[in-house]
Design goal:
single chain, alpha+beta, GMP Synthetase, Chain A, domain 3, 2 domains, three-stranded mixed beta sheet, 7 helices, 15% strand
Amino acid sequence: MDRAVKLISRLSLPRGCVTPEELARAAWPQAVGRRIASRTRAVALADSTLIVEVEDEVWQGQLSTLRSQILARLKEVLGKEIVADMDLRVRIPRRLPQRAEQAQLSPDEAERIEDPVLRRLYKLSRKRSLA
């Protein structure tokens, strides 16, 4: 992959065939290694700044200390300076879809209200706020 990225970056391909962003995203796993690449993901290139999603704040802190080394390695892998800086962002955890039976099993908090009148008022007010 390392050689392929260098080769593609040196080719004089028609404009728009392979964008600098695609090159930078493809070079990311080669520049940082398999272990770091499994915990991070290069998502975009904005004005020569590579935007990288990281798993958590710990990874963000560790990679920010390695910033200059990673940028040097990206330049080495790409063969030219496409990436001048990195923006490390903590990835927003995605919630996996739930099956219908699992979703129905979650207890309704209103059922814990002992007074039937208050329970009904709470349910009506919740319904209005969601509408």
